[in-house]
Each structure stands twice: as C-alpha cells, then as structure tokens.
Amino acid sequence: MRPNRKDAEMDHPPGLDQIVYPSFEFPWSGGFHPGATIVEERMIEWGSACGLIPDEEYRARIIRTRYGFLAARCYPRAGMKLLQAAADYFLWFFLADDLFVDRVDTATAGTIANLTAMIDVLDYNRRRTPPAYGETAWLDVCGRLRGCLSAEHFERFAAGMRMWASTAGLQIINHLQPRPIEICHYETIRRHTSGMNPCLALSDAANAGPVTPDEYHQPAVQRMRMHANNIVCWSNDIQSLAVEARQPGQFRNMVTVYASQGRTLQEGVDITAQRVRKEISGLARLSQEAEEHASAALLGYITGIKDWTRGYQDWFDQDTERYAAAHAAHDADDRGITLP
C-alpha cells in the first residue's frame, strides 16, 4: 500500500489544475420554471432587506451563484409562492451554512447560539432578542412555508432542518480532528448537513400535492430519497473540490477523504464519480418499480425527487459560477468572513 499523501492538507494542493472532472447523465429529463428570473431578482431584494448579505463582495458572489435558478430547476412545476419561498430559503441556507458551519475557523463563541437560534425558530415560531444573524430571515421563510404546507408537511421540512443544525456539531468535531474520519462516518454527516432532506420534503407540494404519511415513509420511498441525497451530495463533492481542497486540515469532502487514505486526488474523483453513477442507476431502477403502483400524489413526489437530482446537475452545468475555477481560490480564502 502506498504511503498516505497530504495533498488535501495543503493550502494549494498540487494537481488540481490537472484533474479530469466527470460528467453525469440521467435517464430522465429536467425542467425549468418560467418564473426563474423574477424569483432570482426578488430573492436578492429580500436578502438585502433582511440583512443577509454582509457586503458587496458577498452580493456579487450571490449574483453569480443564482440560487433562484437552482429553485427553478429543482421545483419546475411549483406555484410561485412556494418557488419564491424555496429560492429565499436556498439563499438563507447557503449563507448560514457558510458562515455558521463551513468556515475554516468553524468553532467560535457564537456557534452554539447561532445554531440553537435556528432550531428555536422551528420549535417556537419566534425569534430571539436580539436576533442572531439570519434569524429574522429564517423566521420569514418558515412563516411562508407554513402558509404553503400543511402542519404535517412543514414538520417533514422542519425535521430535516433540525438534523442539519444538530449534525453540524458532528461536522465541527470532524473539522477539529487532526486526521479524517472513515468514509462511512463522513457519509452520515454529509447526508444531514447537506440540507437535502428538507429540500426533498418540498417535492410533493411542488408537484401533484402532498403524499400521505404512509406513502412518505414507505421503505422504497425512503431509499429513493437516500439515492437522491447521495447523488447530489457526492457529485457536489467533486464539483466543489477546487474550493474545498484548498482549506487545510478540514476533510469535508468525499474526494479529499479518499485522497487522505493513500489515493491521489484523481483517484478520489474517479471513485466518487463511480459511486454517483451507481446511485443514479439505483434511483432509476427503484423509481420505475414504485411508479407502477403509485398514487397520483406519489407519482408527483417521485418526479420531484428526480427533478432535484437532474435540476442540481443542470444548475451546475448551465447556471451557477459558485464553483467556477476563476473564483474557487478566492472564495476558499473568504470563508472566515465576520458576521454582521
């Protein structure tokens, strides 16, 4: 066995410019909501009004990221109220995740206060005085989602968000360790800190309407959600490599975890890509079986799960510059921004 490499621990890992990145194909088509541009504009206005955008540099990053277009691709048949709430949620989530969880200097004096404030919004439907960064915006998003969803369906979304805030603690512990954790442990943390579970909880409301609790919790449906979660998370780990490999000592990425175990970065990319393709095949097979006997609502939900996997990929390929090479090094160095 070759000795462990330390590429993933360096400020500027050698070989990043030579990485061959894979493409992913899906056996289902994607969609795009016609209201995308309007939703994008309103989202930025809302973010500014809520005090979410720390400075003009972050505003420029938001503009080139196009979170509203991500919502339009992942919920292409949603009503405008739900689509706008989803886009605003994406903006809030990416900023909160970057500033609370995903920075180089992760554990700060405000970490616990910030994350528990977000849980309290869900539990009590109110904000603290004074509010934490993003808390007012988060309360507004939750209020609009409560208006779009039944209590049962909002709680599915809320359960995923509580797990995000809670599992963030495990991610912070991971960041503070001198050596990376095992892949299986990484997968558990990634599955919940990604935010995919709350996003998928909106997929039925964005299509044919809410599925029943019995349908939502069917083992086959749970496995489809797991496939979708893995597809988006692990493909993102490849696509964000240029940013995350430059952050020393933090093994937040499946590719860099594989590289820390004695493989090259390219080998880490290739193994991760192979696993993504296996998940796509698993989702295709399982969804085809489930669709044969599904209700109209469940058919809509399954369509929504597929929309998310294909929509994320189309957003990456066609819309966003969040992971563009020209910005990767700069954005990696800017994760430690001071909260307003």
Helix percentage? 55-70%
What is the overall shape?
Answer: globular
In the CATH scheme, what's the topology name? Farnesyl Diphosphate Synthase
CATH class reads Mainly Alpha
In DSSP terms, counting alpha (H) and pi (I) runs of 4 or more, how many helices? 16
In CATH, the homologous superfamily goes by the name Farnesyl Diphosphate Synthase
Helices, strands, pairings?
Layout: H1 36-49, H2 56-65, H3 67-74, H4 80-101, H5 111-124, H6 135-148, H7 151-176, H8 183-193, H9 196-200, H10 213-216, H11 219-239, H12 241-244, H13 254-260, H14 265-291, H15 296-318, H16 325-333
Helix pairs in contact: 1-3, 1-4, 3-4, 3-15, 4-6, 5-6, 5-7, 7-8, 11-14, 11-15, 13-14, 14-15
Task: Please explain how this structure is put together.
With 340 residues, this protein is mainly α. The protein has one domain (7-333): Farnesyl Diphosphate Synthase. The chain contains 16 helices and no strands. The termini are far apart.
Tags for this model:
mainly alpha; Farnesyl Diphosphate Synthase; about 350 residues
